[in-house]
């Protein structure tokens, strides 16, 4: 994005923009709007002109309806059966929510779907192309066949910014080749309380670690000026700000509400600036992130009752004042999923507050078909607010200019349809090799008595545990479906597959350790969590998932404790093997009781390694050394949460940054 221009020249740019738009507006009013011809394009259709000039020219030609349409994002389900809705409402964007995929869910079908929606957008009088957004948060996870990488918490453990940039680039390539030009990633949240269901979407508990991983933005977007390439997408720094700073609400636990996700940041302004705002400075100034998504959460800098809490989606001081004016953010702000409906007041008051706070585009999917309650209400509501003077035309023009700028810089006016050059790279061997390396580098060795690890390949090995042979569990949330799932199957290898490939001795697998354990075997027990997303992952959060794949069957409550089955498997295996290694496949630390820990010879934090469990086996067998470092503090008990490096009383089981190495 062009936000790298120094402040002074930005002012000149704005002046120029005003002059141009005035001049162009006068010209447009004076001259008949003769249809463009290929060899005589209108200014906005002329790629040789500066983006600011093209934006000004196009803005001058747009009606209020066309402008508000650009500020509106629908979900694919709303328009898939009738794409004329895109044309007739001048919609500027469509998204896939988690798990909202074409049928069949293939690279070609994705590209065909996005192009079909694009054709509808191009059929509007001004032919403004559509932006398609998707949660490519660990690869293009919605797409069957995409390369699925470790989630951010594992990437934070790698301490490898160059690798994270490479993963961002591969993610962009596989995303754009299948149609979407925009990824709602990366989450630059700083996770402070591991009871939060989105801890795994965070690179870690310190802003410094999170900032070092913002190379993912460079991987996704490329360098300024490269957004129009077929291997780059617009990125979205989220969720602005303080999504990982919310405090746990004990009264909400077990009630079906979210005890911590989307909660309130009860911190001082200084603490908020240090932990929540800090990562957005380099995201804007150094990495030129194209969009920012506000958080569902609120801030309450005064402490005490929640009446002072201000929802981020209505926080004009932070969105407009701090992000846009102070930091010079020139991209656009996209609201989160129907998030403005959490604001106080009527829907009109919610729209007015969020638009005037500085939100530019509105993710307003229709939840109940045939029941106007999404973007179909947003458009007339905002139109009325403008007509009544409650939202200024300047605010509308600012929002639309930002959105159009992104579309011009993505090259969508010149190349609106999917460039399928890299389609055959989706899920390629080369991409999976990077995923395997990332899985290896994300492993953190916490305990290694008598140098249990690396295992000897000639050893017989006995493998048990709920997560040893479950690629759905090792991939986690935002995979094929919103919540992810234990029955999800994606291309790749499980940890058991990796062990079977690496071991030359006999391998026995028994998930519950009920099978006989051959004498002399080394034991490996892979324990951990089942997939979840957002508040459904909160400790004490709701057990039910809206994900149709779950058919409404309640899933295990997330507790940060090992399941009884996993605990028993550890006890059984560790009692009867010559060595006992436990791997924890989870989105956050899990509690290892002292009585269990002293039965374990080697303990590894595996996080959510993604599609290449073989990468975990690579470090187990010494093909790669253990190099990972804890991205978050590992507590002794849930009662210690939140616990973070720098706390006055800090006695974790393993401290932030800890990790043993087996490097020779
Ligand atoms: C969700 C998430 C956000 C995601 C968006 C679109 O509610 O909060 O991270 O990008 O909806 O799926």
From TrEMBL:
Where in the sequence is the signal peptide annotated?
1-38
Q: Tell me what reaction this enzyme catalyses.
A: Hydrolysis of terminal, non-reducing beta-D-glucosyl residues with release of beta-D-glucose
Query: Source organism's superkingdom?
Result: Bacteria
All copies of domain Glycoside hydrolase family 3 C-terminal, residue ranges: 444-661
What's an example of a GO molecular-function annotation for this chain? hydrolase activity
Entry's EC annotation: 3.2.1.21
* EC supergroup of this enzyme: hydrolase
Residues of the Glycoside hydrolase family 3 N-terminal domain: 64-405
Q: Which UniProt keywords apply?
A: Glycosidase, Hydrolase, Signal
Question: Pfam families in the record, alphabetically?
Answer: Glyco_hydro_3, Glyco_hydro_3_C
PANTHER family, sorted: LYSOSOMAL BETA GLUCOSIDASE, PERIPLASMIC BETA-GLUCOSIDASE-RELATED
The family line of this record is:
Belongs to the glycosyl hydrolase 3 family.
What is the name of the protein in this document?
A: beta-glucosidase
Organism source for this protein?
A: Nocardioides mangrovi
